[in-house]
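Subject: sequence -> structure tokens, single chain

Hey, anyone have a minute? Need the predicted structure for the following. Not urgent.
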Amino acid sequence: MSDLNHYSKIATELGVREKQVISTVNLLDEGGTVPFISRYRKEVTGSLDEVQVAAVRDRLQQLRDLDKRKEAIIKSIDEQGKLTGALADKINAAETMSILEDIYLPYKPKRRTKGTIAKEKGLEPLAQLIFEQNSIDLNKSAEEYLSEEKGVASIDEALNGARDIIAEWINEDAEIRKKLRQLFIEEGEFVSKVIPGKEEEAIKYKDYFDWREPVKTAPSHRVLAMRRGEKELFLMLDTGPDDLTATKIIEKAVVKENNTCADQVRLAVKDGYKRLLKPSMETEVRLYAKKKADEDAIKVFTENLRQLLLSSPLGEKSVLAIDPGFRTGCKVVCLGPQGQFLQNETIFPNEPQKKTMESGALIKHMVATHKIEAIAIGNGTASRETENFVKNIGLPKDVLVVMVNESGASIYSASDVAREEFPDFDLTVRGAISIGRRLMDPLAELVKIDAKSIGVGQYQHDVDQTALKNSLDDTVMSCVNGVGVEVNTASKQLLTYVSGLGPSLAQNIVAYRNENGPFKSRADIKKVPRLGEKAFEQAAGFLRIRNGKNPLDSSAVHPERYALINKMAKDMGVSVEELLKKEELLQKIPLKDYVNEQVGLPTLKDILEELGKPGRDPREKFEVFQFEDGINEMKDLKVGMKLPGIVTNITQFGAFVDIGVHQDGLVHLSQMADRFIKDPKEVVAVNQKVMATVMEVDLPRKRIGLSLKSDPFASNTSSGGRRERPRKNQQGNQKVAQESMEDKLALLKKKFGK
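Reply:
Had a minute. Here:
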């Protein structure tokens, strides 16, 4: 099926012009990447941004997948000899996969069911007779279908078989399924109960021991929590509306009279709903809720990841990095301005060895020898103790001491990437190197770690892993290309995310660089084996070469526009170098004079902006942060303390903040601001520095409650908003499900293989 049918639909959904969609699809189909298209093809797309280009790409793929399924279904029905023009039109008109599958259901090859068995016994004509609901002598009609040979020994057996067939007709009715699907989504509820006897073992799911809430409004973190509790066999989870409401909808659709045949149809309705439709709809609505929860959770994760990847870099400084510890000591490494390894040692300044004099002397010697400008200390075990030690050994005042979030450093240490980079070092030394490099350039180091291990997600292991990976890859690529990559120092992992490259070409670039020395110009990149014109077009604008032959090579200006800039400089009577140094000249350039068929004002404005700050890092300037002195462990905390902290993770229900006690505190949504807010992202971002008030300290459960309000101890009726907590189910005595407890447990064990 042609994409032409989809352009208008996508344009309407995204609120853009159809021409923009067509142009974007053409660029994508030609191999264009989202960063390249949104940055360097604005005239073609009508200035669609990264989010819009990605949305066009993803929606078109969904519609193409739907088309493939339509083709497969039409082929299947045609092979059965049951395809009609009207049916084909109905299939082609289906706008969603669920509607399409409903249409296909009566024709879908299926295993033997009660209905098919009844048909084999010759009871379909009786079922049809009953379904017509005329006034007949039902018993007399049923007697005609008794057959010892076919296994129909009594009138009851004949009627049971006929009802089985009718139940399947009802189940396969696309209109009925559509109405029930809407009911399950609009009026369905999640009903969660603890499995008897598991109360103590399942204590972390205590909020869901007796819990119910609408499917329609359940937030993703609760949906995913309940599903996980069910999977771990701690909770029983039901999903659905009131059974009576559902059966009435079906009866209204199929019961037309008030006679004995209609009574049989009503019985078939109840059986068909309980045995076929309800389980099917429950599965669908759970998948619907799961997909919605996944989308929300993935969105939270990717937004957090973007903020973390774009954290302020310290830059090219000589750094001493420490991976702190107690018994096994602190691993210390020194790194050069480009992150190159210089030296490593192990010191024992903390308990139990407490060799502070020797450790201090060694640190000062390394600082002096390597002209260290900053010290990075991992924020794990013994971090605050190590920080206090470093600050008290008499280092020069201009040496920065910075705590670094080490989430994922241990994952990197054991990875193939780390082994390839540092085959002769053990895990702890690799971890210290990662901590130091993370301070210098968070983006360049974090791309080496599986994004799921960085620690800024929400139920990331419970969501659709393919969708999560695709979204995270998009985010990493967006950040890498947004910042730009120095091609002469970048790692293979960082180059992998550059538009148009990928792992193979990234490896080839590094190999060529190692063999031939640094690239002198962007044009030299074309010499890399297997890096063709298309890859160069996609990648060149995002690769930087500092101090190269052409000053534009350190900027985000694409090489395809160099000739245009040369003309601008010539028209102004200066060199390109002079044009870059004199902002007053840039302001005098008459942009409209340079508009042509290939280049419009959007691109010209981008070029002018870049010429004003060639190669400048778009990330915010680095600022030193310091935790409160003397507050090193949870036992040091007191309710009411105001402490500096760093936001480490954001969820739908609040934000986690590191206040320097080895345990992040939670700022609940209701404690985020003096005003009512719906989303924590309205007031905080990952890595943001905040002042937090300690509201609660629970040492046994290692929980810290924090507040960002100006007066958090004011009356709870103030404008801080309502606290979003699971509420006790008001209908705890109501029946949750039709199945018995034993049946439910058996289903859970069968489903999860335990």
